[in-house]
């Protein structure tokens, strides 16, 4: 049993790691919240149950011990929100006051975050989630322990390198993302925090790989290190969300987004998370972006 000293919202804290309702690596059931993960000792399944006393933690598999021990940091125990000063912007100040549950969790596992981030490059969310499910069904190992049916563990870097071009095509993964994922798999051991170092060091190593850019690197360190400052520059929607929430303007580019977030340097990603949690959203107009199914190409 672990007892947080803040009003923890288990579902919202794990939401950044969940790739859709049918995610094979993270499920919410009547028996608890289940998550699979890799560890240096091997795969693990963790079940979390929110109780009046705190969070009951159970874990199975070769990596059960380190995975279970990492749960408090997954849920934000290492974060320092007291160091954040919201300033006088009314939206940010109000969101900071009304979302005491918001912490920036960190997993300490680069590979688990990097694989789905690569799959999410330059495609719709629905398409990325579909390929993620297909990849785990194809190459992921079954979740250890009494996990819900169909749960899988992210495939190892070696297993990813063994996937054939034909199997990738069946998953719907295009050539550019396929090459980026293979490059990441080749360097996977050097990307874990114990070798890559802090957030800045990990971003530099990832961006040195072909097909890995600043957006992917930011998405990874936000989850691996709980980085409170690194923003996902290059995101299709984020710049407009931030711009509208902070100024009411409908069109903002990446440079404008960073300028708006500059007063909170050191905690820019925390401000983004606050805005995502409850900031004003501009009305949606126009056609949705049409996904491309690479299995039919």
UniProtKB/TrEMBL annotation:
Keywords: DNA damage, DNA repair. InterPro entries: Alkylbase_DNA_Glycosylase/TA, DNA_glycosylase. It comes from the Bacteria. The keyword DNA damage applies. The keyword Signal does not apply. PANTHER family: DNA GLYCOSYLASE, DNA-3-METHYLADENINE GLYCOSYLASE. This is DNA-3-methyladenine glycosylase 2 family protein. It comes from Blastococcus carthaginiensis.
């Amino acid at each position: 049993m672990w007892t947080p000293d803040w009003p923890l919202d288990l579902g919202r804290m794990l939401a950044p790691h969940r790739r859709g309702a049918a995610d094979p690596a993270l499920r919410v059931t009547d028996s608890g919240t289940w998550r699979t993960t890799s560890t240096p000792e091997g795969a693990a399944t963790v079940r979390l149950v929110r109780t009046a006393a705190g969070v009951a933690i159970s874990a199975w598999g070769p990596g059960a011990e380190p995975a279970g021990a990492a749960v408090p940091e997954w849920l934000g125990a290492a974060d320092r929100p007291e160091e954040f000063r919201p300033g006088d912007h009314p939206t940010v100040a109000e969101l900071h006051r009304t979302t005491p549950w918001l912490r920036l969790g960190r997993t300490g596992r680069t590979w688990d975050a990097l694989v789905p981030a690569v799959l999410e490059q330059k495609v719709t969310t629905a398409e990325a989630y579909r390929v993620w499910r297909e990849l785990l069904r194809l190459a992921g190992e079954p979740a250890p322990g009494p996990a819900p049916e169909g749960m899988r563990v992210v495939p190892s870097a070696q297993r990813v390198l063994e996937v054939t071009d034909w199997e990738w095509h069946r998953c719907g993964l295009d050539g550019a993302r396929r090459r980026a994922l293979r490059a990441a798999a080749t360097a996977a051991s050097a990307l874990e925090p114990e070798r890559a170092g802090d957030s800045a060091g990990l971003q530099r190593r990832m961006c040195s790989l072909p097909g890995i850019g600043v957006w992917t690197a930011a998405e990874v360190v936000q989850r691996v290190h709980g980085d409170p400052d690194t923003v996902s520059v290059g995101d299709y929607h984020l710049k407009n969300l931030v711009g509208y929430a902070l100024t009411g303007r409908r069109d903002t580019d990446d440079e404008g987004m960073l300028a708006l977030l500059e007063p909170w340097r050191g905690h820019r990603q925390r401000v983004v998370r606050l805005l995502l949690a409850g900031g004003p959203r501009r009305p949606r107009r126009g056609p949705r972006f049409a996904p491309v199914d690479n299995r039919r190409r």
